[in-house]
Amino acid sequence: MCALTAGQRGRIVQVIDHANKVGKKILMSGGGRCNFTNTGTTAANFISANPHFCKSALARYTPSDFIEMVERHGIAYHEKELGQLFCDISSKQIVRMLLDECADAGVQIRTDCGVQQIERGADGFRVRTAQGLFHSASLVIATGGLSIPSMGATGFGYEVARSFGHELLPTRAGLVPLTLSGKHQERFAELSGVALPVEARCNGQSFRNFMLITHRGISGPAILQISSYWQPGNDLRLDLLPDHDAAQWLRQMKSERGASELRTVLSEVMPRRLALRLCEQWLKDKPVRQFDEPELKAAASLLSDFPLVASGTEGYRTAEVTLGGVDTRKVSSATMESQLVPGLHFIGEVLDVTGWLGGYNFQWAWASGRAAGMAA
Ligand SMILES: Cc1cc2nc3c(=O)[nH]c(=O)nc-3n(C[C@H](O)[C@H](O)[C@H](O)COP(=O)(O)OP(=O)(O)OC[C@H]3O[C@@H](n4cnc5c(N)ncnc54)[C@H](O)[C@@H]3O)c2cc1C
């Protein structure tokens, strides 16, 4: 996006990528259909130590702007849920679109081109690569985060930033499954494959969506979302009956289905295997009419505010994003240019701007790329 924008301005642009092809994360995204934007994107959908930083670029290149390009290239798309737009056919179409736009703008692209050294002199940047030495007035670092190292992710952008005097905020895996261990894992053992809607809550944030229990822990959109707000030791709570007021529902069961065991009525509103495990492990399993009010309140509290002790995350191997990164406080929010080194820009995930699940991360990549491309 940055390259095609700068190319359209008449700049001579060279893209350098060490991978054997560009846009690998686009190709693998959204299950192969690329969730390329979210129509509801606002700054509130991003995590950053500097929450205002992303506003300017997002306002100047909106989801509608990207959709306009997608439509101009005849790419069919659909909204899945909550403003998330996906290609009908394949993520390859998004990469093709960007490559075609780059070609039209005269952008040169080099793949399999590792960067060995970057220096800045009086005449700009010198980038020594496996395919020769390049000189440029501007240098844009768009090397992403640490997620999915097998796809070519490296900490290269962070090293460049540090070498030019930029501060880095601690990085960690985001949008990632959480792991359970010890007795917490044992209690969920045999529930692998169970999926249910939940509301996941941590550190003042909550997400309502599906959770999937896996053999290692928990995953699914609600968990991926909350994982970006969770750190080891933090309190994580799950509403296992997000469509009900648990206390009210239990009182109703007590009056209408008093002779039924708790496990029976619970199995009607959540997966049976989970209902059975909850009744074996945490809840009293007896006919609902035998629950007195304190017992009923305790059961409701467990169902609507279940404390889950996660031991960690699956890490960068499966994380969709990297939280933290280049501190934005020394980067211009208008142009993405370093305030320390004129001509040096940072865009996309390498910056400390991390979106929620749902197309926000690509919208940030497009918008920040566009902002830098207008200036670099
Ligand atoms: C499995 C998966 C699915 C995802 N699905 C979605 C989705 O549907 N919607 C969404 O919004 N977001 C999604 N994301 C997040 C999204 O892919 C990223 O936030 C986005 O790609 C970041 O763009 P970027 O340009 O900053 O970095 P990247 O897309 O990671 O690109 C970085 C580029 O830099 C190159 N590079 C790295 N190091 C070097 C080096 N040393 N020298 C030369 N080149 C280098 C890489 O090869 C790569 O081409 C997904 C992520 C993953 C992992």
TrEMBL record:
NCBIfam families: aminoacetone oxidase family FAD-binding enzyme (TIGR00275). Residues 1-374 form the RsdA/BaiN/AoA(So)-like Rossmann fold-like domain. It comes from Stenotrophomonas terrae. Its cofactor is FAD. The keyword Flavoprotein applies. Keywords: FAD, Flavoprotein. InterPro entries: BaiN-like, BaiN-like_dom_sf, FAD/NAD-bd_sf, RsdA/BaiN/AoA(So)-like_dom, RsdA/BaiN/AoA(So)_Rossmann. Residues 172-321 form the RsdA/BaiN/AoA(So)-like insert domain. Transmembrane segments: none annotated. This is Membrane protein.
